[in-house]
Amino acid sequence: MSDRRRIQRQACNLSARIFVPRTNTVIMCEVTDISSYGCFVKTPEYELVPPNFDLSIGMSNLPRACRIARREANGFGVEFLDPVRQEIEGILIEHAFKEELVFEALDPALEGTVSITEVRLHQTVSAIMELIERRNAMIWQHTATNETPPGNVRASATPMPVRYSHTPLKDLLKSA
To answer: Distance between CA atoms of 50 and 52, rounded to whole angstroms?
Structure first.
């Protein structure tokens, strides 16, 4: 199975928790190997785990959205869904939305409702993810257009790397 993986997994022995969507169910489990794309999970409550769930590994308080990629007799292989999305959301919460979220959490009138800050946070994360997906598509398109057509005798040229210029966030904040 490992020959089909994008990145080889690293063996580990980490405690984890599965959070079943739309319920308060928490299933204790163990992660036995992991990569940036997925992991292998063992749990005695194997049958209770739905196809899609959130997984919190170790002491992390930020669960990652997951889906079961394959089931085996002793556990199941998990694919992390949008691993970058979780990282971006964590960074935005820490550096941009933290104070607003704290104040809204203290407001008893908002208890149990989705706040405007949460909506703005998710819209911002989605916009950033769309930008990343567009950039990835441009890189793939750029690579595909620079490939040597079949039957062409010339030596294949390595495509030039795509370079992006960007303004550091601190410089953008200074100009605002």
So the answer is: 5
